[in-house]
Amino acid sequence: xxxxxxxxxxxxxxxxxxxxxxxxxxxxxTLNTSSLMMNFGSFYIPKMGKSNPMGExxxxxxxxxxxxxxxxxxxxxxxxxxDAGEYARQLMNNYLVVLDAKDRExxxxxxxxxxxxxxxxxxxxxxACIITLTGESLNVVNIGDSGFMLFRxxxxxYKSSTQQHGFNYPYQxxxxxxxxxxxxxxxxMIGVRAGDWVVAGTNGLFDNMYxxxxxxxxxVIGEAGCLEPQVLAQVLADLAFExxxxxxxxxxxxxxAALKEGYPIPIKCGGKPDDITVIVAHIVPTQGHxxxxxxxxxxxxFQPYLPKKSPTVNVMDPIATKRCKPIxxxxxxxxxxxxxxxxxxxxxxKKGKSNPKGExxxxxxxxxxxxxxxxxxxxxxxxxxDAGEYARQLMDNCLTILYKKDMExxxxxxxxxxxxxxxxxxxxxxACIITLTDESLNVVNVGDSGFMLFRxxxxxYKSSTQQHRFNSPYQxxxNSHCDDPSVAExxxxxVRGGDLVxxxxxxxFDNVFxxxxxxIIKQIIGTDQPELLAQTLAEQxxxxxxxxxGVxxxxxAASMEGYRKSGGKPDDITVxxxxxxxxxxxx
Length: 587
Known about the structure:
Helix content is 26%, strand content 25%. With 587 residues, the chain is of the alpha+beta class. Strands 1-14-13-7-8 form a 5-stranded antiparallel β-sheet. A 5-stranded antiparallel β-sheet has the order 2-3-5-6-12, with helices on one face. It has a 5-stranded antiparallel β-sheet with strand order 15-26-25-20-21. A hairpin with a 2-residue loop joins strand 20 and strand 21. Helix 2 crosses helix 3 (109-119) and helix 11 (514-524) packs antiparallel against helix 12. The radius of gyration is 24 Å and the shape is globular.
C-alpha cells in the first residue's frame, strides 16, 4: 500500500498542474495599510449522486475585506423536498452584500452574520463559519461543525471546536423551530503570524481527514516547491474525497466520533461521503507583497471535480500520525525546552460563606508546565454538600496522576478523565487544565472556567464557555444531572515568547472585562511578576464584584438572556497567570 507521501506526490503529478476553480480578479489595486494579509485558494467537490449537482455547501472569499466564509446546508431537508443548499448559498450571498454595501473600517463578523441571517428568507438551514483577518488576529464567528485549523511550521496548533446538539446533528442557522439563531455562535479571536496557514472547511473535510494527514500534505507539497493556497486546497479536497469513499479501513475522524457515541465500527465504518469545501489562506506580511483588491468573489463551484480513485490512505501509517512534540517528564534542565511558563496565582474566597476555603481549587506544576482550575458549583450547598471539596479532590487527583505516573506525554484530557474517575465525594465542578507543549498550549475545558491569551498587552484569544443555560455551566460530577469529561472542549493554540496566559474561574471573568485586564497588564507587563499580576487582577475582580450598579460581563450576559441585573457578581475568585518565556529567562 502506498504511504501518504507517495500518494500525495502521485496526486500532484495527476492533478495539480491543472488549475481549477481559480477566482477571477478585477479592478485590481494595492493596499499597504495592514501588517498582515491573507492569500486565498479554494476548492469545492459536491457529493456525487445528489439530485442537485451544486450540492449543499457554499463559500466565499473577499480579498477587499480579508474575509472568508463557509456554510453547509443540512441535508435532512431533502426529505421534505427542500434544497438546503439554496439556504447556504443565499446566506453567504447576503453576507457578501452586507459586507460590501457598508463602508466598514472594522469588520465585525457576528454583526454581519446576524444581518445576513435576517435577510435569508428561503426554507432550509446551514452551518456557518466566518473568518476575518484584523491586524495580527483572526476574528471568528462559528456555528455548527464547519470550522478551521491553524498550522504553524507545518504543525496544527489550533482547531476550532464543534457545536452539536447530538451526534451528526450540528447547530444550524434557520427559521424553523428546531433551528438556531446567531445568538448561539461561538465568537473568538486568535493571534496569527506571517507564515501561518489557515485551512477552513465544511465537515466534508474534517470528517474525512486527520490533522496529521494535512500536515503530511503540506510537507510533501512544500518539498515539491508548489505550496500555494490553491494547490493545497485542491489536494486536501481531493484526499478528503477519496477517504470519504473508503468503507473498508474503518478509521476516520467520522468513524471515531461515531464509535465514541456508541455506534459500532461496522455500522459507521470508514469515511463519510459529503460535499467537500476547502478554503486555504496563507498569512503573509504586506511588506514586499502586493495585496490584490477586486470585486468580491463568489467562489461557488457548480461543476463537480471527480478525482480518479487511487489506493486508500492508511491513516495509521507512522508518517500520517505525526503530531506536535510532546512534553517529556524526565527533562533535566529548563534549557531543553524552547518556551517555559513562569507561573503565579491568587485566590480570594467569597466573603460570608460558612466554608472559609470557598469552592474554587487550583494547582500549578512547574515541572510538568501544567496548571489547572476547578470551580465547585454552589447550588450543592442547599443540600448541605460542600462542592468545594469536590473541586479540591478533583484538582488533587490531577496533580497526583501527573507525579505518580512516569508520563512520556502529558495529555490533559486523559489526566482529567482519570482524576474524574478517582473523585468520589459528592458535588460537582467546572475544570480547566492547560499544558505548555513546546510552542503550543494543550487545553481541556469543561464549563465556565477558562483563560485568555494576551500578546503585547492585547487580548487575542478567549476560551469559550460551556453552559446548559444561563448561569448553569457544564460540570463534572457523578450525579445524574452532571456531565462527564466526554463533553470537554479540547484544543491546541500556539503561543510565543512574551505571551501572557490569564486563567481563572468565573469569579474573574464575570467581573472583569478584557479591556480592563489589558490596562492592568500594560502597567505590570515589564516586571515579569506573574504573582503580582494575578493578585492585582483578583483584587480588581473583587472590587468589581461588590458593585451594585454599572455594567459587568455578568450583567451583560444576564441582559442577553432577558434578566435584569446590574453591577458585579460576588463569587470565589481564582486567577492563575503564566508568562511565556524562553527558558534562559527563568534561570
